[in-house]
Hints:
The structure holds 2 protein chains of 2 kinds.
Chain A: H1 4-22, H2 26-48, H3 70-101
Helix pairs in contact in A: 1-2, 2-3
Chain B: H1 7-22, H2 28-55, E1 58-61, E2 76-79, H3 81-104, H4 111-128, H5 132-150, H6 157-188, H7 193-201, H8 207-224, H9 231-239, H10 242-268, H11 276-300, H12 304-324, H13 328-359, H14 375-388, H15 395-409, H16 415-439, H17 449-457, H18 472-487, H19 493-504, H20 507-516, H21 532-554, H22 556-559, H23 564-580, H24 585-606
Antiparallel strand pairs in B: 1-2
Amino acid sequence: MAFAPYAAAAWLFVIGLYGVVCSQNLLRTVLSLTVVQSATYLVLLGVGYRHGGKAPIVADISTHSKLVDPVTQVLVLTDIVIEATVTALLLALVVQAHKRFGSVDPARLRTLRH
Amino acid sequence: MTHLTSLPVVMPFLIAPLLVSIGTFAPRWLEDTLALMVAAGAMVICLLLTIHAGSRPYAYWMGGWHPRSGVAIGISLSIDPVGAGVAAFAALMVLAALTYSLRYFDAIAGLFHGLMLLFMAGMVGFCLTGDVFNLVVFFELMSVVAYALTAYRIEERAPIQGAINFAVTNSIGGYAMFVAVAMLYARTGELNMAQIGAVLDGHHADPLVIVSMVLLLLGFLTKAAAVPLHFWLADAHAVAPVPVCVLFSGVMVELGIYAVARVYWTMFAGTMAPHVDTLRAIIVAVGVITALLAALMCVLQRHIKRLLAFSTISHVGIFVCGVGLLSAKALAGVAVFIVGHGLVKGALFMGCGVLLHRFGTVDEFDLHGRGREVPWAGVIFLLGAILLAAPPPFTQFQGKSLLESASKDGGYWWLIVVFAAVSAATSGAVLRMTGRVFVGWGPSEGPDPQQARAAEERVDETRDERDHTPPLMLIVPGVLLAVTTLAGLVPGAVPWMVDHASRFADHAAYARWVLQGQVVHWPAVAPTHVETLDVVVGLLTMVAAFAVAGLGLFGRGWLALLPRGLRAQGRGAVLVLRGLHSGHIGDYIAWWTTGAGMLGGVCLLALR
């Protein structure tokens, strides 16, 4: 089952892209974007996972015990921080789009046609 | 000296929140002074690093986590003259944009200054880092700040749409890179680029390595706006405030190119060595498509900022070809060309700022002949347009002639024709617009309804009254043009670049100086000459640019001479091409996915 996280990640990445492409609501576009990003968490965690490994906190367990890789977990944390920032910014833009355009359908935003 | 290394990244990070928090009550001059000082300081330190690393590139290990017996656990800033030089260039552009904003922007309460400094921190860190994960994080950091800066005039409609398109497209590029980093970590157990390169060296390029390389390329080419990942760029440039456009076109987009070269030469050069010819063909193809398509779109625009944006994309195509040639000489050419192009494009956008400030629009037809009120802006546009065509003997020409020579060496002599055509088309488009706006040549079609609506909405981006252009807004672009004209003429500047580009492209030596701290002795690089052919091509390009401009201004009658069927087909093709740039984020991501699939598929099939 070692491939399961990667298969799930590939699925999330693709279905997220599909969501962004087909979305008729900017809110859903932003949420689909977070689906794409959750694929990156899964890949990172899958890479760092060791079967039977303990959480990598060595305060109260032997330093020789089998641990999952702490590095990828730290990378996921950074990734989450980035997601929070991007999502917050995009949601603010969507709120503003709703105010100015009166719609959150990307097909109804028509200021950049050429 | 070495402890100064992290300062150009750390300093703006510390000052930016300060600027934002004091913004509401501090006087404007204080914010301006602080921001300018930080930008100038970062530039000076980066220049010092460039000189210092010139004789001996070095890795600065954060927190003193040095590598033990060639294994790196710590995070490094790997300083070589090319990386530090690009960082200094980014800081210079930020300095120029901030100086320009002194008289251009009104009522920005520290927020703008803070964002600009964060943007600079992201770009400088991106150039200096030696760690692939940090490379991606700095990429995200500068991207997020760039989204916010794009939507800076949040009360208008167009900037909101432009920023959403920009943010969604670039975020997806960023996520592709996260996956790539995870895959590289899975294969090598390392995050330091030198170390990853060293581990990959002995191995055959299996699908995992190829996919991770493709995903990294996709991220950086999204930032660099290669076709078909480019749609966000024109939108973002059309709506962002002028000083921000200066940075987008001048450096941010080019950093994508820098990163492609960086990750290739540090990590993949060894394992890809058997496939180098195939990889070259693939990347050059991407570059050629980008250059030609964007040049065509550039000629078709009447919104001047959008016109300049497409000119940037088409130059990106040239740079992608250059990096894709995978040779040190081409890399040197790209580096010289990027500096020349960035300064010119910055000056041209500042010229747009003058038009926006005075007339509230950048519609070529609406401005027909009105530019006569600001003749100096016309001079800036004229000089900028001429320099875009890379005429001898200026900086751009030096870069282009290196690129041409490298194309011939690599067996791609026909790239010379592509480069010339693209330079002529983009330069011709700007010349045409200059003639129409500042002289009043050619027919007028009246204002464009979409742009007129946007202009009505526009809430005073600028300060001061409308019948007067502050001299500073003309002096800053003038200085940029002077610098770009002269930089390539300084004796020794171009050979210096050729020397250091060849060291940048030395895969094995990079691992030695980063991981072992060795002093590497490079052999002298054979000097390059400008050939007569290059000069002839340069002059012909200039003539062709004037021809394109003339055709755009007075050529309507001539077009009527073409057979009707051909005209209808041409018009149909143009409509389709315009229709693709729909402003709809779903369409853009559909194209992104198509591009990703094609690049990935071709690489997986061809690089075996």
